[in-house]
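Each letter names a residue; structure tokens follow underneath. Both lines appear below:
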Amino acid sequence: MLAPLLPFKHLEHVAFILAIGPLAAVDATDHSISVLAEAWPNLRSLRLQRGRQSRIKAAGIPGVPPAVGTYPTIHALVILARHCPELSVLSLPRLSVSLPLPDEAEPVPLMNHPLESLTVQETVITWSGNRSLSGSLEFAMLLDRLFPRLLRYVILDGKEYIIQEVHNILEVIRRAREHDRLRGGF
């Protein structure tokens, strides 16, 4: 369904309302994000949102299978950071984060990407170890490695305390960076 739009290389602002399931025209997966990022390197804003019907399906209506494995991961954020150097606003319907990252996973690069606003409608964070502040710290550090200029971050999750920890850690990192800048940097 997106194929006719991919040749428009100079698109800067793109918004889609997504459906979930086998009839969806656009899925927000690592692969589909990669296709979009490579096709539209001039993006300044990318807003992918679930439509009302998709939210109903995602809530677990009987007879509607869950869309397992069809959501972007940290890898999608790395792809966007690498291929869309002017992206300043990003909105995703869902982000699946598994911490710690597997040893065989490609390391998250240290970037100076200009993304200023990140909104994720639903964040699913899973830990393969101790679900403590260390998981929140690792997630916050991953976001900061990619997007050190992040000013607005709305990351929603059913576990408010986890997202609050991530928010607080990102704020501390931002303030420490500003403090270092004021001192002349080291």
